[in-house]
């Protein structure tokens, strides 16, 4: 099964939680544990690590490295998070200021929430919504373990939140990482088998329903009065949930009313080479603003990232 091989090639990624220690501290710690700096692809027989080329404070280890008994992991100093899943918070780039107001609309288990909190240097206010009660429990546990002091977790459906509620009047940045098909995740073989058995019609139906929910989430985020930047991401490889949703969001009344357009490539991990699929966009050049990660080719899971900003002129071809 292809998923097996691809999963075996993905390095073990560990994000250094900079709210608890520094990258230098982490490197000293791993060095004292017998790890030496190396370059991927790693040999499994050597205890080694490397610095990630795109994400600050992210370390790579050989794919089968385990951290479950590691003291740094257990104390929240390390967050085990795939490289691609670190992109959304970096692209959102929330401010690190006392008067910063940010929303993570779909937070559990909290990998991206803890990342946002770290980028905000534990300052300002980060509202983290999670509608599922059980997953909300996991989120609060993770926030406490990671030492997040600027996060207010809310066990609520983001779609029921009133954008004109004064509590959210100063929110400028929103992260949307909603439920998706999960088709990009290569280490969950159960999922791959499941989709293989699903016929095309059933899959299309499922994707259409997911896409309509995902679009609703983006449109809702666009209604917050002061929001200037919205990052939408999925761990799906299907254009229906990715370029399709982004294209529909750009054409929505909410985008027009709010003056939202895609952020230019320069502001969306410029150095990352794999971009959106041009043929899936009404304006093919818009694909340059989008990020894709291909499982098996990018040493990550399959992933998609887009970034909407307010007040940037729409591409001439769409006008
Ligand atoms: N961002 C998370 C992370 O990096 O750890 C993963 C988020 S997961 C893909 C999507 C989450 O959104 C699920 O926990 C799901 O229960 C939650 N969710 C889905 N719809 C929601 C809604 N309308 N409001 C709040 N949470 C929602």
From TrEMBL:
Catalytic activity, reaction form: a cytidine in 25S rRNA + S-adenosyl-L-methionine = a 5-methylcytidine in 25S rRNA + S-adenosyl-L-homocysteine + H(+)
Top-rank lineage group of the source organism: Eukaryota
Every SAM-dependent MTase RsmB/NOP-type domain range: 2-311
Protein residues bound to S-adenosyl-L-methionine: 130, 157, 177
Entry keyword annotation includes Methyltransferase: yes
GO biological process: rRNA base methylation
Record's keyword terms, sorted: Methyltransferase, RNA-binding, S-adenosyl-L-methionine, Transferase
GO cellular component term of the entry, any: nucleolus
Active site feature: 235 (nucleophile)
GO molecular function: RNA binding; RNA methyltransferase activity
Similarity comment text for this entry: Belongs to the class I-like SAM-binding methyltransferase superfamily. RsmB/NOP family.
Name assigned to this protein: S-adenosyl-L-methionine-dependent methyltransferase
Whole-protein coverage range: 125 to 443 of 480
């Amino acid at each position: 099964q292809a998923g097996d091989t691809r999963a075996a090639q993905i390095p073990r990624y560990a994000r250094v939680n900079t709210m608890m220690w520094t990258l230098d501290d982490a490197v000293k710690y791993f060095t004292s544990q017998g790890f030496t700096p190396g370059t991927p692809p790693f040999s499994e027989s050597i205890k080694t690590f490397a610095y990630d080329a795109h994400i600050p404070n992210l370390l790579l280890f050989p794919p089968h490295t385990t951290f479950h008994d590691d003291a740094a992991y257990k104390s929240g100093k390390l967050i085990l998070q795939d490289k691609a899943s670190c992109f959304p918070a970096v692209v959102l780039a929330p401010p690190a200021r006392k008067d910063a107001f940010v929303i993570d609309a779909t937070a559990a288990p909290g990998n991206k929430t803890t990342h946002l909190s770290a980028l905000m240097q534990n300052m300002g206010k980060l509202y983290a919504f999670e509608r599922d009660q059980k997953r909300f429990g996991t989120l609060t546990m993770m926030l406490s373990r990671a030492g997040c002091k600027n996060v207010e977790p809310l066990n609520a459906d983001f779609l029921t939140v009133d954008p004109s509620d004064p509590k959210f009047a100063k929110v400028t940045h929103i992260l949307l990482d909603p439920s998706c098909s999960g088709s990009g995740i290569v280490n969950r073989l159960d999922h791959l088998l499941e989709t293989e058995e699903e016929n095309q019609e059933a899959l299309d139906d499922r994707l259409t329903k997911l896409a309509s929910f995902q679009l609703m989430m983006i449109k809702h985020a666009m209604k917050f009065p002061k929001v200037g930047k919205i990052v939408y991401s999925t761990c799906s490889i299907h254009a229906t949930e990715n370029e399709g949703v982004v294209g529909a969001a750009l054409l929505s009344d909410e985008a027009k009313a709010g003056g939202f357009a895609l952020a230019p490539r320069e502001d969306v991990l410029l150095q990352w080479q794999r971009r959106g699929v041009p043929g899936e966009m009404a304006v093919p050049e818009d694909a340059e603003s989008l990020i894709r990660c291909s499982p098996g080719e990018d040493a990550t899971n399959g992933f998609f990232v887009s970034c909407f900003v307010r007040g940037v002129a729409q591409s001439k071809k769409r006008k």
